[in-house]
Fold this sequence. Notes:
YmcC-like fold, 9-stranded antiparallel sheet
Amino acid sequence: MTLATALLCVMAVQDPPKVNPRYEFWAECKAGSWVKVKMLIKTGQMDIETVAVTTLLEVTPEKAVVETTTTTKFGDKEMKLPAKKEEISQKPDPAQPMKPAGESEEEITVAGKQLKCRVYEFEMEQNGQKSKGKSWTTKTIPGGVAKSEFTSEKMPAPMKLEAVEWEKK
């Protein structure tokens, strides 16, 4: 599962949303707001660590435009990808493979800060592979993602994603 897919899973668990949840979290911010997330995948043979910094470039009533820079470490090797711009529509994506499995509230510590989060549990099946996850979201962090964990039949350990730094303007 890629970082983009993971973030999409985090934001697409409502049933069915009237406004794209990813847009809603960015629309609460001003241009220049950013979040740095770290994702860790254990493959059994090596750990893969991805760090992504997403910055809000523009927000309008119709869309939010963000740019993400990503660096991935495969063991001792590091690969930096070119910055990628993305337009996040205010309209929800009708192709939602998620099945909500639970929703609650929880206070967690992320980047040394206590945050009250909305917790979503979900299940999905894509390309014949079943997976499930749990995501903690908050309007305190640009983009909304505080922390997520995903498991699937083919992963030897859960994939973990967590916000490590951010600035909300």
